[in-house]
Amino acid sequence: MEVNGIAHIYITVDKFELCAPFYRRLLPFLGLKFAVRDGPDDLYFIGGRTGFGVARCAAEYRGSGFAQGRPGLHHVCFRARSREDVDAVHELVRELGARIIRAPEVGVWAPGYYSVLFEDPDGVRLEVNYIPGKGLLDRNVESA
Fold this sequence. Notes:
The protein has a four-stranded mixed sheet with strand order 1-4-3-2, with helices on one face. Helix content is 19%, strand content 33%. It is globular. It has helices spanning 16-29, 83-95, and strands at residues 8-13, 34-38, 42-47, 50-56, 76-79, 99-106, 114-119, 125-130.
C-alpha cells in the first residue's frame, strides 16, 4: 500500500476565541475554502486535497498552552505552489499579528526549499514551504 497523502489534521487549542478568526482567514487563503464545520468549539475546512480542523481543548487542559517539544504535534507544514505563495502567506500572517519565527528564506532541507515559519495565537507552529520539482521525492525513496 502507498498512502495518497494526509486526509486531514486536527489540532486542539486553548485560546479558541483568538485562534478561530486567525484560521478563518488563513485556511481559505491557503485554498481550504469549504467550511465543513464552523462552530463555537471547532472548525474544519477542506480544499487542495487537504482537511484541517481546529478544536477547543478539553477543560482540564485550559491554560496549559502549546509546547512544541512536548509529546504530540511539533508543527504543521503546508506545501505551496511557488515562492510567491510563501511570500503572500508571510504578508497575511504578519497582517494577522502572527509571531513570525522565520521570515521567508531558503532552507537546507531540500534543494530550493523556501519557507516561512510562524505561530498561531495559541503558539502552534505552522510552516508554508515551496520546493521546486518533486523535491526530496526526486531521490530514490526506497533507499532512504
